[in-house]
Amino acid sequence: MSTNLPRPGQVKQVTSFSNPLVKDIKALIAQRKHRQKSGRFVAEGLKLATDALAAGWEVDMLVLGPEARDSAPAREVAATARARGATILEVSTAVLAAMTRRDNPQMVVGVYGQRLLSASALEKAFAAAPQGVWVALDQVRDPGNLGTIIRTADAVGASGVILVGDTTDPFAVEAVRATMGSLFHVPLARQTREGFREIAARWPGTVVGTHLKGSSDYRTIDYRRPSLLLMGNEQSGLPQEMAEACSALARIPQAGQADSLNLAVATAVMLYEIRRGDLSLT
Ligand code: SAM
After folding, report:
1. Domain 11-113 belongs to what architecture?
2. What is the pLDDT of residue 5?
3. Four-way CATH pick for 119-274: 3.50.50.60, 1.20.140.10, 3.40.1280.10, 3.30.460.80
4. Distance 120 CA to ligand 1 centre (A)
5. Does the beta carbon of 238 sit less than 6 angstroms from any atom of ligand 1?
6. What is the pLDDT of residue 282?
7. Contact between residue 227 and residue 198 where contact means Cβ atoms under 8 Å apart
8. pLDDT at 1
9. pTM attached to this predicted model
10. What is the Cα–Cα distance from 282 to 279, expressed in whole angstroms?
11. Which of 75, 149, 153, 267 has the most C-beta neighbours closer than 10 Å?
12. Is any atom of ligand 1 closer than 6 Å to the C-beta of 237?
């Protein structure tokens, strides 16, 4: 009788800095090209490993430092990962530090399969959440901002984040770190600017762009569902052709000398306003 269970992964002791698996992980951390080509990425920490496994993400490798081998929760995560076919690498702190280029590396480092919704899966996700709130990010450059926005989208229960145009890689290690595990819970998709404008043109609810010259105070807009929130690039904001794709342009009032709010902060302000009536402490 055949079963669909994966074969348990191997356990390997790695002491050499030039081991090919160590080099592979280093390249996944340092090179977007390598991440794209292999469809994998690195996430550091036991919490992220726990989140990834609980959410059913594909785990390719789990690297354990000496402390992890003495930790019951880490051993449990490693056993689950191994049962799902992951290779377990047992390494020294020095190898872990070199691999992650950190003086104080996390005791667990994981390599996972990337997940992005295809165009048809995105359409299905729209249809499945008629009351949903989606965030779209136009050409966002800073991985820390992107990770923070994914974390905030998770916190408010948004349906997903659409990365428009040349938006930075959500699987870069700095972005993953900033998500604090939310990467494993928030659906992500990529779209061209043209693709976004097509989605916006047939969007059944409000498409709200944020703009420093927006004519509407963000607290006065009727956010009809599903709502689609479009945020601009850190330096240049939203270009005209993207602003024109929106049914409303919101501005968050400011009082002091700051030119603008940080992108992730502005996204949080907007998301909490859009979700104002939905979130409570009970
Ligand atoms: N120099 C840019 C500009 O002229 O738009 C500043 C961009 S700002 C740092 C990055 C993004 O955050 C903006 O594109 C917008 O989406 C959002 N944002 C920041 N402050 C905002 C405000 N007061 N009102 C509306 N959106 C804001």
Report:
1. 2-Layer Sandwich (3.30)
2. 73
3. 3.40.1280.10
4. 31
5. yes
6. 84
7. no
8. 52
9. 0.96
10. 9
11. 149
12. yes
pLDDT at 2: 53
Ligand 1 contact via 22 beta carbon (within 6 Å): no
For ligand 1, say whether the CB of 149 is within 6 Å of any of its atoms: no
Q: How far is the CA of 119 from the centre of ligand 1 (A)?
A: 28
Could you tell me the end-to-end alpha-carbon distance of the chain, in angstroms, rounded to an integer?
Answer: 49
Residues in CB range of 231: below 8 A, 6 or more apart = 135, 136, 137, 138, 140, 149, 210, 238, 263, 266, 267, 270
Burial of 6 (0-12, 13-18, 19+ CB in 10 A): exposed
Output 215-219 pairs: Cβ under 8 A, ≥24 positions apart. 215/249, 215/251, 216/248, 216/249, 216/250, 216/251, 217/250, 217/251, 217/253, 218/250, 218/251, 218/252, 218/269, 218/270, 218/273, 219/273
CB atoms within 10 A of CB 255: 5
Question: If you measure from the C-alpha of residue 212 to the centroid of ligand 1, how many angstroms do you get, rounded to a whole number?
Answer: 5
Does the interface ipTM go beyond 0.90? yes
pLDDT of residue 6: 77
In short, whether 263's Cβ falls inside 6 Å of ligand 1 is yes
